[in-house]
Amino acid sequence: MLRDFTLKEFRGVAQAPYLSAAGTRQRLRDALKVAYAAPSVPAGWVGAGHPDVEVLLGVVASDIKYAARAYRDWCEELQLELVRPVSRVDGIVDAMLVRGGVYLKYNSKTKLCYVSRYDGKDRGVLIQLGQLQLGHFPLGFFDEAMAKPPPSF
């Protein structure tokens, strides 16, 4: 299911089969949690409980507040340490002050989290588990109503 979603997302046709109904979005969330928890030898993924686990998140958004929300929500759901992002934008020290499109990258093993400018059209969250890259998942994948306020770092 996750690989099919990713292929359809890449081609721009994931909306109808996976994202248009609450039930299919929930099945997609459930499938992601199963993939995250279980080791996958072909993908080089050791599973969430392994001490050497490394999760990479890439969040592309039109605004830092959307990116920070998604990043926080994914860290909460996957029980990853939330690290304050640093800015990689010249002249802007506080990542939360970057304006316009952003790319937020997080590495759960190194605890590196940074924000840079992003001028592309994609929006959403990419996750990499070993060699398996999945997404773009919607920014509000774990908080569809975006009821939680943006994190205050």
From TrEMBL:
A Pfam family this chain is assigned to: DUF1824
Superkingdom in the source lineage: Eukaryota
InterPro entries linked to this entry: DUF1824
Name listed for the protein in its UniProt record: Uncharacterized protein
